[in-house]
Queue: 3 jobs
Job 1
Amino acid sequence: MKFSTLSIAAALAASVSGALDPVEVKGNAFFVGDKRFYIKGIDYQPGGSSKVVDPLADPKICTRDIKWFKDLGVNAVRIYTVDNSADHSECMKALDDAGIYLILDVNTPLISVNRAKPYESYNAAYLQHVFATIDTFKDYSNTLGFFAANEVINAKNNTNTAPVIKAVVRDMKEYIKNQANRKIPVGYSAADVSENRYEMAQYFNCGPEEERIDMLGMNDYSWCGNSTYEESDYEAKVKAYGNYSIPIFLSEFGCNEIRHNAKGSPERPFTEIETLYSDKMTPVFSGGLVYEYSQESNDYGIVKISGDSVSKYNGEFDTIKAAFAKANPQGDGGYKSNGQSSTCPARSNTWEGDGPIPEIVPRAKDYLKNGAGKPLGLSQQSTQEGDSHESGLDTIGNKDPTESDPDSNKSDSSSGSSSGSSSGSSSSGSSSGSASGSASSASSTASGSSGKNAASANAPAAGVLAAAAIVAALL
């Protein structure tokens, strides 16, 4: 008696699937079964930009923090950097037991699309890392989705990176289609660049379905202090994205430019949470993730970590907890089930994302069919300067289209680092982003930049071996 590859994969996956049902995309919203799912989340990368730490690879770290997540009332966390060679089974189960989903960036500070060399940094070594990271997390039912990139476009003069990001999205979707036992959403986490944010959203939702993102995260800090729906950009964005056909959520929010609560204490009031989950916004937005969990040098954290000890940094933890508890959208929130994909934006002086989308590099085609192979983890060398064998340049005629514009690779004072990694882009000008994600200033909307200051492998071995033994016995 023989079984298909998919049947074997399903049997193996059963050993790592948890109690949570997968989140699915329906129209412009997320659903779990027949119930709409709203993200009430927190961005999570303890250690900040000073060191790259995979919090899901160390059960001591994740179990220390998950009890705080439960108390906060979150149902999702976003993690910017992981070690794809590590075992994440214990922490993923702990998240599952707590009712928490994972949104994961697939890049690292050194393995990501480089703004200065986008086509060169799209290469086989890079894709091997991306695919191996998908392998590490694809069999967990509480993996909500993957971000292909974070804030690679962070100014009006680096939109020429968009075709490369689209290629990564295409390749990730194809890999998941071939190697996973379910459809897992692939998205992009965008900087709130006022000059081109709508063109960006259109671009990643236009063209063939296999090239379009499944979800869009917006790193939005336009609501500061005790702002309002009308005074912030929220009302304008609801109108602008009203016909967007896929889920949109705030992948980062929590402006810290104005810090005072109703009593005048130096704390963020988080009044935007009530509005975000109200019927003003639920027809378009599906919630969001507060930036961020741990207090780092950028001063956005809501807890302070000292070794094994965690304490509330200020009153913001309790403020967020109360706001999340109160937020209870009813029914389907007015979502749209049958939206149309977007029209690709025309080239303009603030949008130059109409360059060629590179074909997948030849060496990486084998990964789509046969899998990524052994994950190399955080010790893998940087892929941002290119691959000596081949890169995206080879698939578009070996001429870099960004070179046609002498200013296309130059960053203005607010454009940040040269690489747009999943771990964030920093206004401090670091060369490779940071491990802690990113935190925009309130001026991001006006300036067209997100002035930021921050930043498998192995399913449970015993479970997989046991499942494999069962399958082998049936063959």
Job 2
Amino acid sequence: MSTPTTGSSTEATPRPPSEDEDRPEKRTERGLSGQSGSRPAGQAALLRQVASSPAVVGLLAVLTALILSSILILAADSEVRYTATYLFNRPGDFLHATASTLSEAYSSLLRGAVFDWRATTGVRMIRPITDTLTNATPLIIAGLGMAVAFRAGLFNIGGQGQMILGAITACYVGIAWNLPPVAHLLLAVVGAALGGLVWGGIAGVLKARTGANEVIVTIMLNSIAAHLLSQVLSLKAFNGEGETGNRKSLTVADAAQYPSLAGDSFRLHAGFLLALLVAVAVWWLMERSRLGFQLRATGLNADAARTAGMSVPWVTSLVMMISGALCGLAATAPVLGTQKSMDESVVGTIGFDAITVALLGRSRPLGTVLAGLLFGALRAGGTAMQAAPGTHIKIVLVLQSTIVLFIAAPPLIRAIFRLPERREPLGATSPSPASVPAAAPAAPAAKEA
């Protein structure tokens, strides 16, 4: 009898499943083991990204400055130094003196900048926070002006001179003109912006047309503006009742003054609302407008921007004009808000402090506002902190200076705290603030204008 032939003889014989494959728990274990390797890697990458972020570096810079300032406070306190002589015999005395000195110093800072819980009236209790907002107003506006220049790859160090020109223009409009209230204030504000725009535009045009370094030009313009202010205060249109050594202008008209936001018992004025509006406008300009894209593109790579058809000389001039206009606008805070007049120290060191504010804020509007509030709090709380027993009068200046030092040197902070190096993603929108001077675009030839 012949054996029948089946059609399945040419097909591969199916392999029976192994014992491990047939068990569902083995398949589950293999799936989990495949995912377990990716989870730690993803978490490590996330932690690395967070640890190397500019925000963390900025916070650690402030923390490091506070630690260094605390050491200096302790070193200057006589009781701490005395208890340190017998530290190993009675360490409790040293620790108690240390805690008492630091708590008194920093509680004084908080009471002078945020809330005075030792005050006897409600007005005195909340006055510190209003002083903080008042001090932060010009720092925020001028810091935003610096941030615009930084994002475009330019280092505007002439905020001081631009503020002086804005103060002169605003003060003249407020004194010499007689206009209705709203119109008078608006024209004084616009005049301040125009004064700063012209002074910043000089540096921008020289940079664009001749390749002059904007740092050197703006430093020289600062000196010229300071001497111009001294000369202007001797004119009849400005001269007031001040002494010859410290001349002072007349008080600006009531119609040109910022209205108060919290009553006559506080110094807070409507200039703070203007600072917030300026922050929103700068955010829209840099992040949502076509012009802002050109500014950022020029700051990242001037050659690439030129190849793409952008006029780098025009962008350079416009950036310095915008930056100068914002710095001039910042001068309205003291001239039309707090002092309501002008003297030789009307802008103080706000123009230079604004550079630190922009660096600490990473040249972003929100960060600049927060950094301005921080420095406003340091200014407001500095007076109360200096009154604390054992606290040196210059400790607040040391604190601000060390913040500048650590903000300007991110590698130093990364080395201290063993942070990983930051890897810039593709398509980053701006250079790091610490590298702004090095990132400044090369000056194009005059024929490209």
Job 3
Amino acid sequence: MRVKLCFLMLLTFILGQAIIAQKIEIMDWMSNSYLGIQMTEITKDNYSKYGLNSVQGVAVEKVVENSPAAQAGLKPGDVIVKFNNEEVTSVRKLKRLISEVAPDHQVRIKILRNGKEQELIATMGKRSLTSFQGIKLQIPDVEELRKRLPKSEDDTWFDYLLNNKRYIGVNVMSLNDQLANYFGVSDGKGVLVTYVAPNSPAARAGLQAGDVIMEIDGKEITSIFDLSKAINSNKEANIRITIMRNKSKHTLVVTPENSEQIPQKLVEDASES
């Protein structure tokens, strides 16, 4: 089971390093979401190629046939400038925004096509390992892979992925301005719980879909990464989660479990093909 989870965690990162010019296929393991595009950065050297007057957005290089992107009407050459009302400034940011939307949820994608602005609606799909058919990967051992990767601020993130051993059993997504207002989060910070696994540590502690996680042990949570890092920062202790529910703050105590204790069904869902 541990091997399956590690494979899912590493696969997207490896692909991102292997594809030339930062063309990344968006199939992020963190939310199991799938849009079905390859993209590239807009730079001062190529912005005119896309009919732009300046550097902005991210260009769509390829659209996977029958994917959510294709069904929404995205085409190669489109420039994505906003995703769910958030400005798109890089491949990395768009990748994160896509990963934070649960499968089967609709998203608004604002694009520039031939210099004209359009808005498309896409329904996110569920990523499966069959999405990688035809791609042959030889995955080195962990230490060898770490040596091959460029040294950057992401090293901490990569080390975290390899050592992530605790889970509470929730799916979450980031808040945009409208969601923050709806759930009563005035500063717009926090992550929205979209699913709580039955009999998970989160369920036993009383977390519910629709709660907004704002803090863990007094540390502000503004992203999925913040949430996961906070859960795993202390390998043994309980965690105190501050949430917003019905526009009122509550504090819950959750006892995370080791990932080896994740129910078999959750693992099978994560590696569904």
